[in-house]
Structures are given as structure tokens and as C-alpha cells.
Specification:
Elements (H helix, E strand, L loop, with lengths): L3 H15 L9 E3 L8 E3 L1 H9 L3 H12 L5 E7 L3 E6 L1 H14 L12 E5 L14 H16 L3 E5 L7 H13 L22 H17 L1 H15 L3 H24 L14 H13 L3 E4 L2 E4 L13 E4 L7 H15 L4 E7 L3 H13 L8 E7 L2 E2 L16 H19 L4 H21 L7 E2 L2 H4 L7 H21 L16 H10 L2 H10 L3 H21 L8 H25 L8
Parallel strand pairs: 5-6, 5-10, 10-11, 12-13
Antiparallel strand pairs: 1-2, 2-4, 3-4, 7-8, 8-9
Helix pairs in contact: 1-3, 2-3, 4-17, 5-18, 6-7, 6-8, 7-8, 8-9, 10-11, 11-12, 13-14, 16-19, 16-20, 17-19, 18-19, 19-20
């Protein structure tokens, strides 16, 4: 079904044309002064110059055409030339009814779905997830869900850091600790063990120890480089160890990402790009895109209108080593081969902006992607503590993600147990649900590109613009609906008729709900999850005002009570759909 703003726009177009004015001036917007009107058109001001008339005269002519239109309660021309509109209560309630019965909230079928790759993990194997991984996981998961909600084929890729020197460091440190393992016996010809010779806890301790040792011990560093080269050359024993590292790491990462309700379709990494690199570089050189500069192989990616210098994209260092840009370009080749995406969306810290400018320009210049393919980088800001500095543990270190989640869950559990209504295991389970909402909403409600303060006390509050408050609103609606079902034998709420709003508060709630699809489309087009959060809070605020203005369950008029029930039930549906896209859910009670 058409969006409300489109339906109103159609009426304005007819009115402008009937008055012999160009319909391009008949643009409608939601009013920024809801105390005066609900929708407005400012086209008379722009129109005045072309038609050499006073804006108010043009506005009055258009209003004269619209004044008897059934979709409006009131239309007026206001100096210097605004056209202010209030919709009829019946038109609004009929529209909401259409949303309820049309399926998927009245959203029209996506006839041209896109294939979209969302690259939003970036975790390194053999290392625990820490708070630096939080934003890419939360924002990326939401972007993936937004795209799917709108009918696109969206593929989420974790894109692991699973290659390079870190692997050689781990292998060499493992040799020092367990030299008796068959992987280090060059005469061994049998099958290597299926079980890894280390646990995830051991692995997470091995890498930092090896990294520290390499800085202090030149001989160890040399051996780690040699081990890396052997692995990258396909050594059988080291490849077996590498597979163990991947298996143990991925199993642990899936648990930790799962605690954030984050799932990936692809668990690929930098290693998957390696088979494409040599041919890619040779092809780029052969076609004149890449050339040697001071021993390195580079691609010029600067453009004449650049306001600041964009350095060449280095795809091979002077020592023959590949870089992140090399891996990212080779990954694009693989993705084009396997999925041929219409759109790529990368989620990383905004400090990597230059890297992606270079990679995207190199990909276009070398024709790795079609001209129509969209390449986008969403660079997010830093998650800071109350002191304005990057969030740290009390001892000043980088906090593991699982510890942050526990800290938030504990804070929520304490709040729940203070009330005395939920205790024990139920408090534990409910706290996990609410804690996830606190973390995700606290992050997503901020514009992604900006830094923000991670304030556990504020984020876990059950009041204000927070995740717990949003869930509390949904739980309150569930409670009302449950009580209604207990008191009434008729429980087919879907069959209840929605009446025109009886109060301004009820109409405001309806007008807020009908924006849902428009909000979802705009949020995804701009990759702006915070706009969904703004909408969700607007709905909860409108519901709260409505709830406090009427007596839903004690309403004596049966038809009106059923209309109230239908409205709050649909409010719950929309809120639940919105928070599902944000990546969390509501508990049964709080």
C-alpha cells in the first residue's frame, strides 16, 4: 500500500494542477510544528517566483480546492504561504486498518531485491572478543536485519583475521611449549590428531605471550616469520595446526557473538582471499593499473578534484608481502565470483576511512566490480567511558566483551530484584534479555559515526530513552492484553474494528504508527539505525501519553474498548518488529 505521505502528496498534486501550477511544487512533509498541523506543504513560496504571485494567494487557491476533500479535517493557508493540513480521524484509522490487514505492515513487495554483502565482524582468531568488537557486531547485525526486512538478500560475513604473522607466532610458541607434538616431527607421515592440542583458554594465552616474546627475542621472531612462510606455502603440519586454531576460535566466537544475538551467514576470513592474490596482482600489472614504486607495487587512486591527498593503494610491499588492502581486493574478487552483489557495506572504526577510500577506488579502477555496484563504508565512532576516554576496565585494560555483558546483566538483575517481583532464575533469565536491549539500544540510538559514552547506569535505567524502557512499554501492553483475554470470552483481537480516534492522544499514536515502513526504508537507505530507535521511542512516548489519557479496560462502550485493544495490540506488533530489526526482544514480564 502507498505510504501516507504519498497519498497526501497525490491530493496536493491534483490541487496544484487544477490551479494551473506545476505539480513539482506540491511536496508534502510531516509538520515540524505538530501543535499547528500534522502535515504541511511549503510549495507556494517556491511557486510564487515562477508565477509572479504572492505565496499566500497561491496557497489560498490550493486550499480552496482541498477544503472539501474527505481525507482532511482541516486545511488552511497561513502567511507567508504555508499550507497546513490535519487529517480526518476516519482516514487515519482506515489507513491503520489497511496496514493491519495487508500483511507486513502495509509494505509493498520489493520487486527488485538486491544482493547485499555486509562485512561486519573483523574479529581475530586466537583472541577473545573485546569491547572494540562491540559496535561493528551490533550495528552490522542491525544493518543486515534492516536489509532483510525490506526484502533484500543480505549476506553477513564475519571476515576473520585468520592469516599472517599471528599464525606463525602461535605455531612457534606452541612448538616451544609442546615440542613433542607430531606436528613438529618432520619424519611424521601419519594422520594428525582430530582434536586440537590446546583449549580456547590456552590459545588466548599463547598469542599474547608469543607476541611479547617476538619483541624481546630476535631469534624467536625470525622463527615465527619462517613458520608463517611455511604455513602460507601449504606445509601439511602447520596447515593442520592452523585448522585447529580456526576450529577452536570459531566455536568460541560463535558462543560470544551468540550472546549478542549476532549471527553470520559466512565465517570466511583473510585466508579465503589468498588463492586469488597472485593472479590478481599479475593481472593488474599486465593491464597497466598497478606499477612498481620504490620496490612496492601500487595503484594510483587519487582524483583531480580531491581536496586532500589520497596516497596510492599499496597491494604488495617491497618484501613481497601482501597488505590488508590486497586481501580486501582479493576478497571482492571472491565475492563477485560467488555472489555478484549489488551492494557492499563494510562496518569498521571510522579511523579506517582512508583505507576504504583507497580500496574502493582501486576496485573500481581495476574493474573488479560493475559500475552500478555500490561500495559503502560505515565508519563508526568510539565507545567511551564517563571520562570521555575509550572505555577501559578499572585497571585500565581493554575489557573482554563477555565481562561487559556480565556487568550490564548484573546491574539489570539488581534493579529487578529491588522490586521483589522477579527473583532467582527468572531474574537471571530476564536480566539477560533486558541487558542485551540496554547494550544494543544504548549503542544504536546514537548516530553511528559519532563517539558516545557507554553509561551502564543510564543504559540500564527503566525510565527515559533506554532499551529497558522500550521493553517495559511492550511488557505493559502484553499485560493489558492478557488481562483483557482473561476478562472476555472474545479473544480474536485481529477481528476488532479500529475506530477513528476519540482523543488527540489516540490520534497521535495512530499518526506515529503509520510512519513505520517509511522509517524503515529511510533508515536502511541512509544506513542509520538510530532513526529506528528514534521511531521506537516516539511510539513508546505516544503510547504512554495515550495510556494515561484513557481507561482501556474499564471503557464501557464495547466497540470503543475493542478499538483500544486493537490499537495497542498493533502498537505491540510494530514495536516488536522494530526491536527485532534492532536485534533484541522483549521478556514476558519485568
Amino acid at each position: 500500500m502507498k505510504k501516507m505521505i504519498e497519498l497526501i502528496g497525490d491530493e496536493l498534486v491534483r490541487a496544484f494542477e487544477q490551479c494551473s501550477y506545476d505539480s513539482k511544487y506540491a511536496k508534502v512533509s510531516i509538520s515540524n510544528r505538530p501543535d499547528l498541523c500534522e502535515y504541511q506543504c511549503n510549495g507556494a513560496m517556491a511557486c510564487a517566483k515562477e508565477y509572479r504571485k504572492a505565496p499566500i494567494v497561491i496557497a489560498q487557491e490550493v486550499v480552496e480546492v482541498l477544503k472539501d476533500n474527505d481525507i482532511f479535517d482541516a486545511v488552511e493557508a497561513v502567511a507567508p504561504g504555508f499550507i497546513n493540513m490535519k487529517l480526518s480521524g476516519k482516514f487515519v484509522s482506515d489507513y491503520i486498518e489497511g496496514m493491519r490487514t495487508s500483511g507486513k505492515f502495509g509494505m509493498e513487495e520489493n520487486k527488485n531485491p538486491q544482493t547485499i554483502i555486509v562485512d561486519y565482524g573483523g574479529a581475530n582468531v586466537a583472541k577473545p572478543l573485546h569491547i572494540g568488537h562491540l559496535r561493528s557486531a551490533i550495528i552490522g547485525e542491525c544493518v543486515k536485519r534492516m536489509g532483510r526486512f525490506l526484502g533484500n538478500k543480505v549476506i553477513g560475513d564475519v571476515h576473520l583475521g585468520d592469516w599472517g604473522l599471528q599464525m606463525g607466532l602461535i605455531i612457534e610458541e606452541l612448538r616451544c611449549r609442546k615440542p613433542e607434538l607430531s606436528y613438529f616431527d618432520e619424519s611424521f607421515t601419519g594422520e594428525y590428531p582430530k582434536e586440537a592440542p590446546f583449549t580456547i583458554s590456552e590459545l588466548e594465552e599463547i598469542y599474547p605471550a608469543a607476541s611479547k616474546k617476538a619483541k624481546e627475542n630476535e631469534e624467536f621472531a625470525k622463527k615465527a616469520h619462517e613458520a608463517t612462510l611455511k604455513l602460507q606455502s601449504g606445509d601439511r603440519a602447520f596447515t593442520a595446526i592452523w585448522k585447529h586454531i580456526i576450529a577452536v576460535s570459531v566455536a568460541d566466537l560463535k558462543v560470544n557473538y551468540g550472546n549478542l544475538n549476532v549471527e553470520f551467514d559466512l565465517w570466511k576470513g583473510e585466508s579465503d582471499a589468498q588463492p586469488y592474490i597472485e593472479d590478481m596482482i599479475n593481472d593488474m600489472i599486465a593491464k597497466g593499473y598497478a606499477y612498481e614504486s620504490q620496490g612496492a607495487t601500487v595503484i594510483d587512486v587519487s582524483l583531480p578534484d580531491d581536496k586532500k591527498e589520497i596516497p596510492p593503494c599499496i597491494i604488495r610491499k617491497s618484501d613481497g608481502a601482501a597488505l590488508y588492502a590486497t586481501s580486501d581486493l582479493a576478497t571482492i574478487i571472491e565475492r563477485e565470483k560467488l555472489y555478484s552483489p549489488d551492494r557492499y557495506i563494510y562496518l569498521t572504526d571510522k579511523r579506517q576511512e582512508l583505507h576504504f577510500v583507497q580500496v574502493f577506488r582501486a576496485a573500481r579502477k581495476t574493474k573488479l566490480v560493475k559500475e552500478s555496484t555500490s561500495l559503502e563504508h560505515l565508519g563508526f565512532g568510539t565507545m567511551n567511558g564517563k571520562d570521555g576516554q575509550p572505555f577501559k576496565t578499572r585497571s585500565g585494560g581493554v575489557m573482554r566483551l563477555e565481562y561487559l555483558i556480565k556487568e550490564v546483566n548484573d546491574a539489570v538483575k539488581a534493579r529487578l530484584e529491588e522490586s521483589g517481583k522477579i527473583v532467582g532464575q527468572e531474574a537471571e533469565d530476564t536480566a539477560r534479555i533486558i541487558g542485551l536491549a540496554a547494550i544494543k539500544y544504548g549503542d544504536l540510538s546514537n548516530q553511528a559515526s559519532k563517539d558516545y559514552v557507554f553509561d551502564i547506569d543510564r543504559f540500564t535505567s527503566f525510565e527515559g530513552n533506554t532499551g529497558p524502557y522500550i521493553l517495559y512499554t511492550i511488557v505493559r501492553i502484553k499485560s493489558i492484553l492478557a488481562k483483557f483475554s482473561q476478562e472476555n470470552s472474545m479473544s480474536d483481537i485481529g477481528g476488532f474494528k479500529l475506530l477513528p480516534a476519540a482523543t488527540a492522544e489516540e490520534k497521535r499514536l495512530m499518526l506515529t504508527l503509520l510512519k513505520f515502513v517509511d522509517v524503515m526504508e529511510n533508515a536502511f537507505a541512509e544506513i542509520a539505525p538510530h532513526k529506528i530507535c528514534q521511531f521506537v521511542y516516539e511510539v513508546t512516548d505516544a503510547f504512554s501519553t495515550f495510556y494515561n489519557s484513557v481507561k482501556i479496560l474499564s471503557e464501557e462502550d464495547t466497540a470503543r474498548k475493542q478499538s483500544y485493544i486493537a490499537l495497542i495490540s498493533y502498537t505491540k506488533e510494530i514495536l516488536e518488529a522494530a526491536i527485532d530489526v534492532l536485534g533484541f526482544e522483549a521478556p514476558e514480564r519485568m
